[in-house]
Specification:
Length: 775
Amino acid sequence: MLDFADLDLELVDLFVEEAGDLLDHSDGLLAQLRVAPGEREPLVGLQRDLHTLKGSARMAGIMPVGDLGHAMESLLEAAAEQHFELDRGGIPLLERGFDHLHAMITRIGAHRTAEPADALIAEFARHLSGQPEAAPAVATAAKPQPELKPLSAPIRESEGAGEEGAGTRAPQEQVRIRADLLDRLVNYAGEVAIYRARLEQQLGAFRNAMGEMVQTNARLRDQLRRLDIETEAQIIARFQREHEVADATFDPLELDRFSTLQQLSRALNESAADMSSLQGTLDDLIRQYETLLLQQSRVSSELQEGLMRTRMVPFDALVPRLRRVVRQASAETGKQVQLKLDGTQGELDRNVLERMTAPLEHMLRNAVAHGLETPPQRRDAGKPEEGTVRIAMRREGSEVVLEVGDDGRGLDHAAIRRRAEERGLVRADAVLAAGDLNALILESGFSTADEVSTLAGRGVGMDVVASEVRQLGGALDIASRQGAGTAFTLRLPQTLAVTQAVFVKIGETTFAVPIASVRGVGRITREGLDRPEAGYRYGDEDYPVHDLGLLVGQSAARAEGQLQMPLLLVRSGELRAAVAVDQIVGNREIVVKPVGPQVASIPGIFGATIMGDGSVVVILDIAPLVRRQAMQPRDARPAAPEAAPRRHVPLVMVVDDSVTMRKVTGRILERHNFEVMVARDGIDALEQMVDRVPDLMLLDIEMPRMDGYELANQMKGEPRLRDVPIVMITSRTGEKHRQRALEIGVERYLGKPYQENELVRNVYELLKLQRHDDE
């Protein structure tokens, strides 16, 4: 009996850490030995691992582990000295020994008592004594020895090889840090990225303001030039009228008649020159800030990538545990199972790997217990008695794809449909494809088994697996062939902290969609969207059309002001969907934040992110939303937009070369719940109206590049813009200017400065809206 009161707990913890690494390494060697029992390299490697484990256990005072390790080492020593060959009975016995060592180390790590493995040690001794050449080895093994090394020449050479190989590999130092500290550092790096985005956004706004300042300075210089010309003209005209009666001895300027006006004009010119100089200084500072921010962005990205790499762990670290699961399941069911691995050298985020460990174990138990047939059944089916369970891993973009499959009997579609009808999940007359039937085993508590197995049940618990995959932002697909086996494909993000996302809008709400699931964007006519069973063709594949507004429980997408509806093309495994939205904003890198269990339990929510302006945007997982709608009867879906109307927010465009006028007018309109877009002149307005047509335009006359008259003429001559009402707001209040505007077709003509009540009244009248405020 192991008594922890007599042990150094710090030494025990160090031993447990070392023992875990040794046993994981031994597990890989044991798998090689099972494939090729005659190979000497894995045999020698196992000897070394057990010898180290035995010595460390005895140093730490953990004698039960040392005794079992010694018995296993004795068996390997006898095999290495070629006293006998490891047969089909010896390798399973070694597997049982290693599994028992794993169990003992796990108990010791939790500071729980580990019982001596007397029965298993005796079984190793019986296995050795059953061989005629093994008697000396048994006698030797009965005596505890500080060193147990094989004496035969081949083994010694194979071991002189190990030392040379170790000498050629330069040792690399490693540092162990707490997982929670690393997670906090990654979160801090994410916060730095968020603040950097805010700085970039503010610097961009400052750059835009500088652009407005450049135009304002140019306009001011032009006005001062004209003022100088007008002043000179007035001086000359006045001089010509008065030179007959004036004293010819003095020039008008010498009499100071115009000195004050000219001094003010010259002072304004100097002030304009000073403003231009300040503008140049600010431009230089902005360029320097942009350079510094770019450098900081690179360093921040490298820091974040470095921290993310520290969180990456090889999938191989989980393989020994999965092998033990398969061995235990095969021993309990009496089946012969081989675990095949492909591409498992790849890396995953530690959090992803930890959260997927239990689901993978469950899937492997299912595969062994209910996927694979018994040896007699496999013989009758013309298959090898030994079944195969395989795990394959590959990288696709920013996703890691895990495939877990078997060569067993496959899913029983008839039984699945029968049980689904009994539970009311499927109508009796419903036509379901094989993929739809496969997806039914992911429903909560769904099982086709008549009795629950203590080991596993095909389908029982698969809802938990699917839920875990969805919470990680991944997808789970099932493929099955009757009599040929079943394959589960898990698509997982390589990391949970940072990802690329596409931003879309429904009404006033912005959502983010992970770019890993987005295959492209498209557009569809409104007539095509309204057709029953609407579809979109992209990349030789058909994408059924869905409405994101209806998927998230809002009103249908309208894309007002646009000729066609934007589509986000989503693919998740076998699922294809073209999702209609109001607007596709663009894509950017985001820091994924958890949303808490209350929100995360809602289907379709992957997480949230914080934008540069501090706003929170929900990250959507569209695939479960589409699947949920597809599973509903068509008559139960919220089909028509009229069922969930959304109040139309009028869009008003303000066109004025004055920054102040644009801001003041825009704030007034926003205060009255209008959506506002602004343009600095006619050309800018026409460029913006390519994508969106406003419901009303507020237009100035005097602007650079294209003035208000030219813009109004062009709009009234274009069918797409002809019906947009125009309100001209200008300081030109003369009848001649007003008459020209009305002849073009302008609906209202207001002078500057305008009264807010008058402007709002005209806007409401032209848009045929009823005011509900107190004015």
